[in-house]
Amino acid sequence: MRLTRAGIAFIIALLIICPLGAGISYAALTGTPFGSLPFGARPTATVARPAPTAQATTSGGGANPTAASSARPSSSPAASGSAAPGVTATVGNARPSVAPSGVPSVAPSGAPTATVVAGAGTTPTAAQGANITVAYDSYAPYFPVRIAEEREYYNARNLNVKQVAFGLNGDYNEAQRRAALKDGTFDVLLTTLDAVALFPDDSTGKVVAIVDESAGADKIVARTPIARLNDLRGKRIAYSAGSVSEFYLYASLNLVGLKATDVQLRPVDTVDAAVDLFVQNQVDAVVGWEPTIQAAIDGGGKVLLGSDNYRAILDVVVVSTKALNEKPAAVQAFLDAWFEAVKLTIDDPQAAGAAVVQSGDSDWTGIEQPGDYADALGLAAQATLGQNDFAFRSAGLLTNRLNEIGTVWRAGGKPLAAIDPARLIDGGLVQKSAAAGRYNNSRPPINASFVLTQQIAVPRLTAEQTGQTQAVAELPLKQVEFLPDSTELTDKGRADILAQIVPVLKQTPGLYLKVEGSAFQPASDTPAQNEQFARARAQAVIFFLLGQGIDGNRLIEGYVRPSFVGSTNPAEQAQDRRVVFTLVQPGGR
User: Fold this and answer.
1) Which domains, and CATH codes, for the chain?
2) Beta strands 470-474 and 578-585: pairing type?
């Protein structure tokens, strides 16, 4: 059949119009925009998701709600009625991180949308619906976990984070925490570096980030006549068994060369019980954390040493080896969200505090008003992303600390597995977070005294202030080797100072070191000659310490008179050839 021109035009029109009509019909039915035609297009959601109602939740084990915000509670066995170990739970009334399928994710009223909060150009870094389970204590520096939830940082990365809050979702002792990490019940555990040193093997988990240094939360309190750590020898000391207080006790004893067997240990279940023993005069000293330890001070005790001046405690982020192997992208997404929340905590603590309040469970967090969060962070020196990056790139910095921790635990009688510390550390995730360039803080933390990655500097003391210093601890190194009749250190003398003095000075901000020389005085020497020679040896030690990056303002030269003038006994002569190292605090306590 031959087609006319009109017929051909009609067929062409049908070929154009029919597909167009079908597309428009599909758009109208499905709500899909068709070009510039907004048929059924979904409007941007404006209805806010309701904030959680804050519930008064009693924390397990009788934990003090106020204490919870400033320090980690001691570990205790699972309480009756609590979630059994190995059970993953969601914190109180916290919402899931990922909205149900088909429901648009809506930011809380007045809050920026997830894509804005997560930073311009952010793209999801985890597979849709990837799951991470994170477990942590009620301790303010751990709350970026909650802040990231409230600020939608997890949602922006397609990450579903389930939170296990110890004391709120069940209690796990240290052994149970390690087991849950190893079998993958916990993907992430916030804990202390000393706890990592107790891992039974190198396949349980790895340290991937540093949270903070305890900077005043932990203290050793004693009553007179105990005035220095050295005076604890033979004394009764109470502490919460299995808690970070036990490690801090052993670390402090180790400073002065004492072992657990050199004192009378009085382990109890909680810090409150330990303080009660002190107040009831049943022990001579107690180790604990703020604010509970304040009752011991009010009960007549004096602070011998606190974590503000001895930074033995590092809080860290540990990821299970299982999670690192099976879902590395989800782990990286979690750490990115963590550092974004840390950035908010530092740059805008009021906003971060508001997020913690909004997360609920204020009886457990101890944060009832946004300003409470900043107050709680005052006793912890937060580690920024930049400090994390530096720490993990610095060869041996964390492995050396783990070796030191191992020495402390062994002195306390704890058996340790033979593990290469390097196999407990993975700095790759921090370096990827740092490379993103979006999570660096723009102002200092509330407590900017993190010392692991920086040189400690202190003001120089006046002569009057120097005369009023109070001894805190006399260090155990006494015999520093010099060449015969010389002020030159031998190789062994330098090695001993490097091993026993320099590490202490790098962990003791606020304390000064008195370096007192002593020399044997032959009968032919005058006291003035002896003092001049002894001080010259002290100055040689100080000069060597300066070469190791120690601030000269911290070093105080001194002199100790010999005890065996003119002696012909080689053993007595050797006793007078020494250097006394004493950590001192200006103005006493």
Assistant:
1) 1-42 (no CATH), 66-101+111-216+314-436 (3.40.190.10), 218-306 (3.40.190.10), 463-585 (3.30.1330.60)
2) antiparallel
DSSP 370: H
Neighbouring CB atoms inside 10 A of 30's CB total 11
Cα–Cα distance for residue pair 74/153, rounded to 1 Å: 30
Q: Which helix H or strand E contains 318, and what residues bound it?
A: strand 314-320
The residue among 150, 156, 28, 5 whose CA lies nearest residue 92 is 150
Q: DSSP 3-state helix, strand, coil percentages of the chain (rounded to 5)?
A: 40, 15, 45
Q: Are 49 and 104 in contact (CB under 8 A)?
A: no
pTM: predicted TM-score of the whole model, two decimal places: 0.77
Residue found by looking up tokens 């009010």 in the block:
298
The helix or strand, by DSSP H or E, that contains position 382, with its residue range, turns out to be: strand 380-382
Q: Which residues pair with 161 in a beta bridge?
A: 132
Q: What does the alpha-carbon distance between residue 390 and residue 450 come to, in Å, rounded to a whole number?
A: 12
Distance between CA 494 and CA 159 in Å, rounded? 52
Determine how β-strand 470-474 pairs with β-strand 314-320: unpaired
Bond prior to 484 in cis (omega within 30° of 0) = no
Cis amide prior to 291 (ω within 30 degrees):
yes
What tens-digit pLDDT sequence spans the chain (589 residues)?
Answer: 333 444 444 434 444 444 444 443 333 333 333 333 333 332 222 222 222 333 333 333 333 333 344 445 444 333 333 333 333 333 332 322 322 222 223 233 333 333 333 333 344 456 566 999 999 999 999 999 999 999 999 999 999 999 999 999 888 988 999 999 999 999 999 999 999 999 999 999 999 999 999 999 999 999 999 999 999 999 999 999 988 999 999 999 999 999 999 999 999 999 999 999 999 999 999 999 988 999 999 999 999 999 999 999 999 999 999 999 999 999 999 999 999 999 999 999 999 999 999 999 999 999 999 999 999 999 999 999 999 999 999 978 999 999 999 999 999 999 999 999 999 999 999 999 999 999 999 999 999 999 999 889 999 999 999 999 999 999 999 889 998 889 999 999 999 999 999 999 999 999 999 999 999 999 999 999 999 999 999 999 999 999 999 999 999 999 999 999 999 999 898 888 889 999 999 975 5
By the 8 A CB rule, do 268 and 74 touch?
A: no
Run of H or E residues at 160: strand 159-165
Judge contact between 76 and 171, C-beta under 8 A.
yes
Please give the Cα distance from 505 to 484 (Å, whole number).
Answer: 28
Strand arrangement of the beta sheet that strand 264-268 belongs to: 264-268, 236-240, 285-289, 218-222, 302-306
For residues 186 and 135, the answer to whether their CB atoms sit within 8 Å is yes
